[in-house]
Write a structure and sequence with these properties.
Length: 528
Amino acid sequence: MVKLLSSLVAFFSITTLFAQTPSGEIPKLVVGITIDQFRGDYLEMFRHKFGARGFNRLLNEGLVYSNIYYDFPNLNKASAITTIYTGANPSFHGIMAENRYLVESNREISSFFDDNYLGNFTTEKLSPLPIKVSTIADELKIASGGQSDIFAFAPDASQAFASGGHGASGAFWIEDENGKWATSTFYKAKQPVVDQHNRGGQSLTYTINSLTWRPAIDVNRYDAFPYTRNRYNFQHYFATDKKNSIHLFKQSPYVNKEVNDMAIRMLESGSLGKRMNPDFLALTFYAGNFEKALDKNYSVEIQDTYYRLDQELERLLDAIDAAVGLKNALIFVASTGYFYEQEIIPEGMVTSGGDFYPDRTQALLNMYLMALYGREQWIKKYYNEQFFFDRKLLEDKKIDLREFQQKAAEFLVLSSGIQDVVTSYQMLHGAYNQDVQYYRNGYYKGMSGDLFLRLQPGWRVVDPQSDQYEKVRNNAVVAPVIFFGTNIKPQKIERTIEATEIAPSVAYRLRIRAPNAAQSKILRELFR
C-alpha cells in the first residue's frame, strides 16, 4: 500500500511538472554565455550608461535570478564553467583548476592535458577527456543521434573544452603564442569559417600590433566609483610587450569582440538553428581586471570593459535574431562567481593580516614531521592551497596516513595566516559537517592533495619567485543568472541558485536527459 501511494505521488508530481511546460517550446538554438569574473554589483552600477538592447534588454525581458553560488573552494574559470555545463561539482567532473599537479612526476600540467591528441594552430596536447562526466552539449549530441551542431568559442582552452564538451563539432580558443583560433585533433570535423579567419589578414597574428585600447566614450562619463583618484585617458598598446601581448589582450574588452566576431560568423554562415534538432553555441566572455590598470582599486578600465561588453551583447542578440529569431532561441548568461581583486594599499596605512609564504610554511611543516617520523622529505609540494605528501614514502615506512595527515593539520592550524585545515581523510571518511562537505565537493581522488588550507582574509600569499601576490578575500561576489528567449516569462527572482541547477534545467527545456552526474533539481520558474 505504501509503495502504491509513493508511486501515485511520484506520478502526479511528474504529471504536474510536465503540465507546466508550454507546448512547442523546444528552441532551435541554445546559446550559453559564461562571463568570467562577471559581477552583479558592477552591472547595476554601470547599467545607466548602457544601451537598451544589450544587458538592459536581458534584464528587462528575461528571467533573472539574483545570484549564483558554487559550493566548493578556490573558484576559477576552469572549475566554474565545467560545473555550469555538467551540473556537477569538481568531486564528480574532475576539473579543479586551470592546471593540476602530478605528484608522481613532480610537474604542473594543464588540467586538459592529453598526450594522445595534437593541436591545430597550437603545440599544446589537450582534449576534453579529463572531464569525467557528460555535459549538456554531450547529452544533446547523444539525443539528436549526432545531428546537433555544437560549437564553443572562448579566450582559453579550459573554457572551450568545458563548454563544448566531448561531443562538440568544434571547440576553439585563442592561442597565447600566435593569436590564432586553436583547437584539438580530438574534434575531427574541419570548420571552414574558423580556418578562413586563421589564414586571413584579420587574424590577431597580424592585427595585434596595431591594436590600442582607449576609452570607448568620454572618460569623464565613467563616474560609477566616487573613489577613483583621477579619470585618466588610458592607452594600452598590446604590442609594447610582445611576449605577453595576447595575454594582455585577453584581459581587455577586445577579447570579447574577438569571441563575438567568430560567433556571429558562425550564425551568419547559416548552419546553426536551421534543422530539426536544436544546435548549441557556447561562448565565454571576460569581465575582470586589467593587470596594467593605473588605479587597480576603482579603475576606469573595468567600466570601459562593461560598456563594451554591453555593446557586444547587443550585437550578438541582433545576430541571433537575424539568424533564427529570438523567439526560437534559448539564451542563458552565468558568471564564474569570483573576482580577482588588485587592490593598492595607501602608503603609510597599516592593515591587519600579514604575508603568508607557502615555501616557508612547507619547510617548517617538513621540519616538524622530521622530528616525529624521521629525517625525510615528507612533502612533495604546496600547490593551489594544498599540501601533497610523498605517499610512496609513507607506504614504504608503513606510516598510518590518517595519523600523519592529522598531525600535520594540527601543526599548520597554529600557524599565522591559516584559518583552518581539512585533511583528505576527513573528506573521504570523516564525520559530515558543512565545512568538510564544502571542501569535499572540490576534491577529486587521485588528483587533489592531502591537506586543504583555508587562509585568513587580509593575508597576502607571497611567491618569492614572482613580483605578484594574491590577497585573500572571502567576501562573496554577487552575480545574476539570466535566461532569455523561447517562451521565457520576464521575472526577477530574489534567490540564490546553485551553479549545478543550470545544466539540468537547460536539459529539461531541451527535453533531453540531464548530464549524467547532475543531481540538482530544475529551476521551476523556467517552466511557468
